[in-house]
Amino acid sequence: MGAIVVEVCDGNAITSLDIEGIIESEFPEVAVLMNECLAFCGLCRVRPYALVNNRRVHGNTPEECLDKIRQAIKEELAVYQ
After folding, report:
1. What's the rounded Cα separation, in Å, for the pair 79 and 69?
2. Which contiguous run of DSSP H or E holds residue 57?
3. pTM metric for this prediction
4. Hey, which residues does 8 pair with through a beta bridge?
5. Three-class SS of residue 65?
6. Which residue in 16, 18, 42, 64 has a CA-CA distance of 20 to 30 Å to 36?
7. Could you read off the pLDDT of 6-61 as tens digits, one per residue?
8. Quick one: CA torsion of 17, 11, 26, 66, rounded to 10 degrees?
């Protein structure tokens, strides 16, 4: 498993993208975990979001959220370099 973990709720709008395939191909050191529920009740219905090393990242669209996830990953990777 990678040093960075991205967790995504199955019911989230971001799953309209192949988030697991996109992130893991761009960042091999990152593990994407798809969960049934992340216990942020209702948030997945309001906007796309994910947890990057337990830090909530969200956007107004799946694409915006993906861009913010990428940025959060880069910030986390900077800690390990």
Report:
1. 16
2. strand 55-58
3. 0.86
4. 34
5. helix
6. 64
7. 998 888 888 889 999 999 999 998 999 988 776 666 666 778 989 999 999 999 99
8. 70
